[in-house]
Design goal:
This protein is an alpha/beta fold and about 300 residues long. The protein folds into 2 domains: about 1-210, Rossmann fold, CATH 3.40.50.300; about 215-270. Helices cover about 25% and strands about 30% of the residues. It is built from 8 helices and 14 strands. The protein has helices at about 40-50, 90-100, 105-115, 130-140, 160-170, 185-190, 255-260, 275-285; strands spanning about 1-10, 15-25, 30-35, 55-60, 65, 75-80, 145-150, 180-185, 195-200, 205-210, 215-220, 235-240, 245-250, 265-270. α3 (about 105-115) packs antiparallel against α4 (about 130-140).
Length: about 300
């Protein structure tokens, strides 16, 4: 569906995004994570057409998004800082977007009722969270192929998050649409997405399928100091601390446990590798996502 291929974007002679590639399929919710300043928002803006990249290719359903602006009618971006139409009412904002998109009035009214918002309210009178609720009401009422969300739950309380998660899940259930969302919090990514990309230093450095985790952390302890023979396994990383061996292994859990059993260790432990540890491993970084104590994700 969405293909982003080797996108590069500079602003004032500084590379903000360089050689970035990712893909999103219909029916997927994909996350784009990374520390502040990694280039996440700039990449989203390139996909949405807010910025024009100097190099690379962006296609949605095989249609060029960079040079053919009309093809962008199949996507919508909920930006982190919504400041357009501050003097609009919610009704005027709805009418504005209706000029460019096919909007379902009944669905829009249903979302507004849930958020306890009225069309007569001015955008400038709303809180940050209410502005995002109004914009989500618009986005969830459109006929889209791709919905992009920057800092997905920023400014929203836990019950709104639960409601939006249900709505997003319903929207992708028939595989007519995909979702690409940005967050600096791996906690949010894990709670929402089935696939995640990590940006660091203006490029995508790692990705992980969150539904099928085939990476495991293995700890082995032997009574005598020895190096275990693990050549039948795909070792990503291994280190020795005395009689203890710590390894990151890629493969099926049962196959890993069978191979370890044949070594007769005094102690063996196999645990799935967390998303935070995986990204730290792949990027040689201590960043593990900014985790704020702001309640459950959904």
């Amino acid at each position: 569906m969405l293909i982003v291929d080797k996108i590069t974007k500079s602003i004032q002679a500084k590379e903000i995004v360089k050689d970035c590639s990712l893909s999103v399929q219909a029916g997927q919710i994909c996350g784009l994570a990374g520390p502040n300043g990694a280039g996440k928002t700039t990449l989203l803006n390139c996909i949405a057409g807010v910025l024009t990249p100097e190099a690379g290719r962006i296609e949605l359903d095989g249609k060029d998004l960079i040079h053919e602006p009309l093809n962008r009618k199949a996507l919508f971006l909920i930006s982190e800082d919504f400041d357009e139409g501050q003097f609009f009412t919610i009704r005027q904002m709805k009418e504005f977007y209706s000029m460019f998109y096919q909007l379902d009035e009944e669905t829009f009214a249903q979302h507004l009722r849930h958020f306890q918002l009225e069309e007569k309210l001015r955008i400038s009178s709303l809180s940050k969270g209410q502005k995002r609720q109004a914009l989500f009401s618009i986005a969830l009422s459109l006929d889209l192929r791709l919905l992009m969300i920057d800092e997905v739950f920023d400014g929203l309380d836990w019950n709104v998050r639960r409601y939006l998660m249900r709505c997003l899940t319903d929207k992708i259930s028939d595989e007519s649409m995909g979702v690409l969302l940005v967050s600096h919090s791996l906690k949010e990514i894990k709670g929402i997405c089935d696939h995640c990309f990590l940006m660091k230093d203006q490029t995508i450095v790692a990705q992980q399928d969150l539904l099928e985790n085939h990476l495991f952390r293995v700890q082995l302890v032997f009574l005598q100091e020895r190096k275990p023979d693990l050549k039948t396994l795909e070792i990503v990383q291994m280190e020795q601390i005395g009689k203890c061996w710590n390894a990151v292994v890629r493969g099926e859990e049962q196959a890993i446990r069978s191979a370890i059993a044949g070594l007769s260790p005094a102690l063996a432990d196999v645990q799935p590798l967390s998303l935070e540890d995986y990204f730290s491993l792949m990027t040689d970084s201590t960043w593990k996502g900014d985790e704020e104590n702001d309640g459950e994700v959904f």
